[in-house]
Amino acid sequence: xxxLSVVIPSYNERDNIKETISVLADVxxxxxxxxxxxxxxxxxxxxxxxxxRDAAAKDGRIKGLEFSRNFGKEAGIFxxxxxxxxxxxxxxxxxxxxxxxxxxxxWKEWQNGAMVVEGIKTDRGKESVLHRLFAGLFxxxxxxxxxxxxxxxxxxxxxxxxxxxxxxxLPERNTFxxxxxxxxGFETKKVYYEVADRKHGKSKWSYRGLVSYAIRNATSFSTLxxxxxxxxxxxxxxxxxxxxxxxxxxxxSGNAATGFTTVILLILLVGGLLMVSxxxxxxYLARIYEEVKGRPRYxxxxxxxxxxxxxxxxx
Length: 315
Ligand code: UDP
Ligand code: MG
What we know:
This protein is of the alpha/beta class and about 325 residues long. The protein has one domain (about 5-220, about 295-305): Spore Coat Polysaccharide Biosynthesis Protein SpsA, Chain A (Alpha-Beta Complex). It has helices spanning about 15-30, 50-60, 75-85, 105-110, 130-145, 160-170, 175-185, 205-220, 225-250, 260-295, and strands at about 5-10, 35-40, 60-65, 90, 115-125, 155-160, 190-195, 300-305. It has an eight-stranded mixed beta sheet, sandwiched between helices. Strand 2 (about 35-40), helix 2 (about 50-60) and strand 3 form a beta-alpha-beta unit. Helix 1 (about 15-30) runs parallel beside helix 2, helix 5 (about 130-145) packs parallel to helix 8 (about 205-220) and helix 9 (about 225-250) runs antiparallel to helix 10 (about 260-295). The radius of gyration is 24 Å and the shape is elongated. Uridine-5'-diphosphate binds next to strand 1 and helix 3. Uridine-5'-diphosphate binds near residues 9 and 73.
């Protein structure tokens, strides 16, 4: 019989673990799916790992990893994937915002031959107007950059074991799980779900965190911003030539503007463009620097349960 691994990145989710386990156990046993749950505590400091350890002591199907510090959700997902022993892996949040009720549906699609089953949000749940606006903008941009519709995608998805292995083989450290599952291709099916409210605690995202997450992912997936620098520069040059011709014509026709304004505006415009462009290049340089250093994506400090031979650090 096939087994399902459920990977659950958890950062300070002490109050959610137990409920998540019981809801998952309920749904999965009703659907007659053999499973293991892999909780990856992302350097939590609220005792999340203790709760996982207690649960694992009672149920052999529960496994846990703890990071030496907070490495971020992406690292948690990849650590979970490399510890998964199932024939298919589902990644889901620990706060029950990804409804476990759709897992049997994903499982069916997989049994029918799908290699990737994407969880697609039908609505975004409770989010502030600003968050919604920002997320909408980000996903429009990402969709354009990647050439795939990302607007309703999420980290909630099922991967065949082979797809998970392919993802683990990718050498880059700045990963964007949500888009990589599109990028690798394979036969993909969609399953729709409504985002539930977070059970306990608060979302881990600050606006600042979200902005840096967005920039990181957009640039980890596309070099278009770099090319955009060239385009914008070209347009600026063309505009300056036009402006130059106009100024010359005015000068020759004898009504030259005393025009200090034009000069200052131009200096400001070009200066601004240069700085933005340098910033974009600098951002890519920073990413290259990080990749070249070759630091591990995460460091595992503790494990609990029957975790296979996984690397404690991952390059
Ligand atoms: N998470 C994580 N590491 C982090 C931040 C979040 O593993 O640094 C986990 C978190 O425990 C949860 C999931 O990622 O299971 C989604 O986080 P959250 O609910 O805070 O985000 P939101 O649902 O608001 O997008
Ligand atoms: Mg959440």
